[in-house]
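Q: Sequence in, structure out?
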Amino acid sequence: MILIAGGSGFIGKHLAQLLIDNGYLVSILSRNKKENTNDISYYQWDVEKGVIDEKAVLEADSIINLAGENIAEKRWTLERKQAIVQSRVGAIELIYSVLQKHNKKLDSFISASGIGIYGVLQSNIILTEDSPLADDFLGDTCQKWESAADLISNLNIRTVKIRTGLVIGPNDGFLKKLIPIFRLKLGTPIGTGEQFMSWIHVHDLCEIYIAAIENQKINGAYNAVIKDGTTNYIFSKKLAKVYGYNMWLPNVPTFIIQILMGEMADIVLTGQRVSSDKIEKTGFVFKFTKLSYALRDCLKNKN
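A: Exactly. Output:
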């Protein structure tokens, strides 16, 4: 049984279906009460209140943790920052408490993390899992996230941390906000357009999670990105091409993004150029390595 914590979101839905398609039994921890289906068993939890249906954890062979507030959903007020961190750390600590209480052993614990752990940068340096970690908000958040996962590693459970880039996929992800603009042929780069966008198709991301379940040698932190050096300008240009036009508007000025988004503007105005060598050395093969192909797959029903 594979338990997905936070499995009702964009990535969780894709992952659950792929697991089912691969013959796995799937259960999901959800804050809202849901009826079981033929394929999925649902259990309730509330991270903020520290409440969890322990049966979900005790019946699991492996746990995949995707829980956490959306970093880019709202402006980063102090309260919002605290919620972003606590939703990630608290979720793992809650699962840890059940594992420790019952001396429950898992085949694996696989947790989401983010390439934000390297900080918000504007550099050509290619970052690996051994690169220095940042002390800005994103870096600090991801480090606390991974440190919580290390609690479970201390229980002698194989623990994997998937440092994820920008996830693109059908009907959701960050593409969802771009589609209306680019469909109207108004899409254009943001800021300088030179910031790197280390992306990954949701299908490949989910396949990495499955590989982490099945390959006992996968342990520790792995970047989940395509290492093609895509910048915001390149991404915007290729997305415009999918919609059949060449970009014609000037770049969106940096100061406008900063006014609209506040500190959170760092997410779109800076980026990281990240390596995927480590995960590929395990034998993992990406399906979507070409951005144009990946975009067309995501948008084939959106034209």
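The domain at 2-167+199-225+278-283 is CATH 3.40.50.720 (Rossmann fold).
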